């Protein structure tokens, strides 16, 4: 999904959750969540939380980091936990 498609999903869920609520639940800043959406920061934990929140698998939301054949790349490949 593109960053804009992810934002549209958040708009649809506005009453249920926000990027700020994801940030709070993970103990990270809201800009960190935004940077992951914009592909300026790579965080396995934040990407999975975003995917779960919008109800799409990580390999659909972040296909450049997740493939359908593997839940997580064999090595960290720059992931921050």
What would you note in describing this structure?
This protein has 81 residues and is an all-alpha fold. The protein has a single domain, classed as 434 Repressor (Amino-terminal Domain). It has 5 helices and no strands. The chain has helices spanning 3-12, 19-26, 30-37, 44-54, 58-61. Helix 2 packs across helix 3 (30-37). It is globular and about 30 Å long. Mean pLDDT is 82; it is low at 71-75.
Supply database-style keywords:
81 residues; mainly alpha; 434 Repressor (Amino-terminal Domain)
List the helices and strands and how they pair.
Layout lengths: L2 H10 L6 H8 L3 H8 L6 H11 L3 H4 L20
Helix pairs in contact: 2-3, 2-4
Short description:
The protein has about 80 residues and is mainly alpha-helical. The protein contains five helices and no strands. The longest helix is centred in the middle third of the chain and has 11 residues, at about 45-55.
Q: Please, what is the average pLDDT?
A: 82
Main β-sheet description:
none
> What is the domain total for the residues?
1
CATH topology: 434 Repressor (Amino-terminal Domain)
Taking all Cα atoms into account, the compactness measure Rg is: 12 Å
Structural class: mainly alpha
The level of helicity is 40-55%
Report the CATH C-level class. Mainly Alpha
């Amino acid at each position: 999904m593109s960053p804009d498609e992810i934002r549209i999903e958040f708009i649809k869920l506005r009453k249920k959750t926000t990027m700020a609520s994801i940030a709070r639940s993970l103990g990270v800043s809201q800009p960190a969540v935004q940077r992951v959406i914009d592909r300026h920061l790579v965080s396995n934990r934040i990407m999975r939380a975003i995917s779960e929140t919008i109800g799409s698998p990580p390999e659909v939301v972040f296909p450049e980091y997740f493939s359908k054949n593997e839940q997580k790349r064999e090595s960290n490949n720059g992931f921050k936990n």
